[in-house]
Amino acid sequence: MSTLTILIVTAFVIGYMCIALESVTKVNKAAIALLMCVVCWTLFMMAPASYYPTVEPDSVVHHIAEVIEHHLGDAAGTLFFLMGAMTIVEIVDSNGGFNFVRDTMKTRSKRKLLWRVAFMTFFLSAILDNLTTSIVMIMVLRKLVQNREDRLIYAALVIISANNGGAFSPIGDVTTIMLWIKGVITTQGVLTEIFVPSMVSMLIPAFILQYQLNGKFDKEQNLPKADVSQFTKVQRDIIFWLGVGGLVFVPIFKTFTHLPPFMGILLVLGVLWTVTEIFHYNTSEDDTMAKRVSDIMTKIDLSTIMFFLGILMAVAVLQEVGVLTSLGEGLNEAFSGNYYVINGIIGVLSSIVDNVPLVAGCMGMYPVAAEGAMAVDGIFWQLLAYCAGVGGSMLIIGSAAGVVVMGLEKITFGWYMKKITWIVFVGYLTGIGCYWVEKLLF
User: Fold this and answer.
1) Which of 54, 136, 215, 221 is the 20 to 30 Å CA partner of 10?
2) Closest Cα partner for 379 from 236, 189, 220, 208?
3) Distance CA 429, CA 391 (A)
4) CA–CA separation, 307 and 31 (whole Å)
5) By percentage, how much of the chain surpasses pLDDT 90?
6) What is the pLDDT of residue 136?
């Protein structure tokens, strides 16, 4: 490893530590992520030719511009998807669309609510995706749970359940989508063989977390008065089904058009925006302007978007200098043949750095075989889908769902690591054990 590469890795580690210690430094994690991104790319540009020996010296700068545009394009797709999904959820929420979901989950028992949140999040994330589901569930929880300490427990469970639900579905997580499109896992294979491990690794944390909740909610807290809305019940239901149904439609739109997922999100946002404007046409402007989409969009948490941008582009540098690939090769040499250990470690790493480049690195490093562990629906690929998805829950910044919930609920890195990390790890290992038993018996 060259001196420059060591400097880049050091800058990334220092930036990561500052993000982790946000509650101590009092500096917003988005600011640190942006600085980390720029510093890493600046160091990279000190000797770019050393990383591209096959590129002509005169063409290196042009080549790097194309590389940055490529990574920025990938990041922008994720960011536009995130912004679109957040806006759709805000539109539905501000116009009373989630009253139906809230009423379905409503209970005065704190533990009953925990289990309802766990199962609804788990299955919704498989149908939608873990990112969108997390946003929806946090919006619902804000209406049901007023006490912040209680809501943090529920929010942590939302992260766990969303990532676990996304791991057993080919459209539930970015990494499973990547593996599915690559053709190394099939819909039937991942649904039948990863469902039980994902479910078990969700149930164990939920079982442990329920003991941090006792008693019942105050009647006034858990059963808030109905929101005042200018819309009729029929109009609210239309907004709900357009929003949620539109999110379900996104992967279908992608399958038929082969356009990126964010294009589907923008289509749904455009339709929902148009419908709400039509509904607002006959209402008083003074009463409804705060609920117009143009105003709702100002409520989107841009600091979370900037944090995402900084993290994704900083990890892209590590990918370009070959650190992630070298890490994967080192794991392969150290634990040759033991795919349970290799994927287990990859899962832990996915909670530290973004799981997308990790999975991308694995797909490029390990060839698809005709038979054995590397075959389609082989042990390696299925375990990779499980570990990369579920492992991201160990740290709050280890997954898209975690980052979004962190931004929405202002959860600190330290609180999550102290209270939740060990619980997720227990469920994670148990899930790997369940998969091993499945393969042993069947």
Assistant:
1) 54
2) 189
3) 10
4) 7
5) 25
6) 82
Cα distance between residue 416 and residue 401, in whole Å: 14
DSSP 8-state class, residue 353: S
| CA separation for the pair 113, 128 (Å, rounded) | 21
Count H helices and E strands in the chain, helices first: 23, 0
Q: Is residue 246 within 8 Å of residue 253, measured between CB atoms?
A: no
Coil, strand or helix: which one is 14? helix
Type of residue numbered 128? L
In the structure encoding, which two tokens stand for residue 88, read together? 């759709």
DSSP 172-236: SSHHHHHHHHHTSS-HHHHHHHHHHHHHHHHHHHHHHHGGG--SB--HHHHSPPPPP-SS-HHHH
**155, 141 contact by CB (below 8 A):** yes
Whether 130 has a pLDDT exceeding 70, the answer reads yes
Task: Determine the Cα–Cα distance for residues 310 and 326; give it in Å rounded to an integer.
Answer: 23
Closest CA to 402 of 391, 415, 389, 392: 392
Distance CA 415, CA 396 (A): 10
143, two tokens: 């209406």
Of 338, 132, 337, 330, nearest in space to 245 by CA? 132
CB atoms within 10 A of CB 191: 14
C-beta separation of 268 from 80 below 8 A: no
Average pLDDT rounded to a whole number, residues 305-329 = 82
Res 122: pLDDT: 94
CB contact burial 54-88 (16+ within 10 A = b; e otherwise): eeeeeebeeebeebbeebeebbeebbbbbbbbbbb
The pLDDT score that the predictor gives to residue 177 is 77
As a whole number of angstroms, the distance between CA 132 and CA 431 comes to 24
196-227 per-position pLDDT tens digit:
999 999 999 999 999 998 888 876 555 544 55
Check: CB of residue 293 under 8 Å from CB of residue 91.
yes
How confident is the prediction for the chain on average, in pLDDT?
83
The string of pLDDT tens digits covering residues 231-268 is 777 888 888 888 878 877 877 887 788 888 789 889 99
Q: Which H/E stretch holds residue 125? A: helix 110-127
